[in-house]
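Dear colleague,

Thank you for sharing your sequence with our group. We've completed the structure prediction you requested, and as agreed, I am returning the results in plain text so they can be pasted directly into your records. Please verify that the sequence below matches your submission; if there's any discrepancy, let me know and we will rerun it promptly.
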Amino acid sequence: MSRVCELTGKGPLVGHRVSHSNIKTKRRFLPNLLNVTLMSDALERSFKLRICANALKTVDHRGGLDAFLMKAKEDTLSDKARDLKRQIAKKRVVAAA
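Please find the predicted C-alpha cells below.
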C-alpha cells in the first residue's frame, strides 16, 4: 500500500535530520494517513478511503465528500476517487434533468 493520500495526492517528502553538531542525514517526512469511511450524499452510500488528516479537515470544511470531489482537480485524485467523482457528477446530471 503506497503512502499517498487518495484525495490530495500528498506523499512522502525527503529532508535532513540535523544533529546537535549540525550533521545532516537523510530522512523521510511521511503524510499523516488515516483509514476513514466517508458518506456520499449523492450516491447515498459510504466509501472507505486512505486520506491525510489535512484532507479530512478540508472535506469537512467544504461540506462533505461530494463538494470536495466536485472542486478537486482530476490529476491530484487517485483512480478510485476519480471514478467516484465521475459517478457523483453523472448522478447530479440525472437528478437535475
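Summary note from our side: The helical segments are 53-62, 65-71, 79-96.

Kind regards,
the structure core
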